[in-house]
Amino acid sequence: MVLEKIRSTLESHFSPLLMELTDKSHTHVGHPETMKEKEMLLDLVIVSAGFEGKSLLQRHAAIYEALAIGKNSSIHGITIRAFSPLEWEKRATS
Questions:
Q1: CB neighbours (10 Å) of residue 20?
Q2: What is the distance between the alpha carbons of residues 12 and 16, in angstroms, rounded to a whole number?
Q3: Dihedral (CA of 48, 50, 53, 56) sign
Q4: What global pTM score does this model have?
Q5: Residue 51 is part of a domain; what is its CATH number?
Q6: I need a labelling partner for 23 at 20 to 30 A (CA). Which of 30, 31, 43, 85 fits?
Q7: How many Cβ atoms from other residues are within 10 Å of residue 19's Cβ?
């Protein structure tokens, strides 16, 4: 399954403390101009110590590189919310 391969890739690259990966492709049903036959629209929340000290752009670039976004024909789009453990903890207590 493609989603499990994506999850496994993210786990091996980022060793996340928390990861929520959701397939939101159903939200684009009826949009043939944007969704090709087997492309997925994903939503990702990921918390990793590897994001500590990295900018939002650097975090997104690392995820795009790990998943080969642009070269990966199975991913149409991905919403990314990437946090360091400290940021996640602060967010939870706010």
A1: 11
A2: 9
A3: negative
A4: 0.85
A5: 3.30.300.90
A6: 85
A7: 15
Enumerate the β-bridge partners of residue 89: none
Phi then psi dihedrals of residue 90, to 5 deg? -65, -40
Residue 28 vs residues 2, 8, 23, 59, 67: alpha-carbon distances, Å: 18, 25, 11, 26, 21
Domain total in the chain: 1
Q: What is the dihedral of CA 86, 51, 8, 22, to 10 degrees?
A: 70
Contacts of 25 (CB under 8 A, 6+ apart): 35, 39, 40, 41, 76
CA 62/CA 50 separation, integer angstroms: 10
How far from 62 is each of 2, 36, 47, CA to CA, in Å? 19, 25, 13
pLDDT in tens, 25-57: 866 655 554 555 567 889 999 999 999 999 999
Distance, in Å, from the CA atom of 59 to the CA atom of 81, rounded to the nearest integer, reads: 9
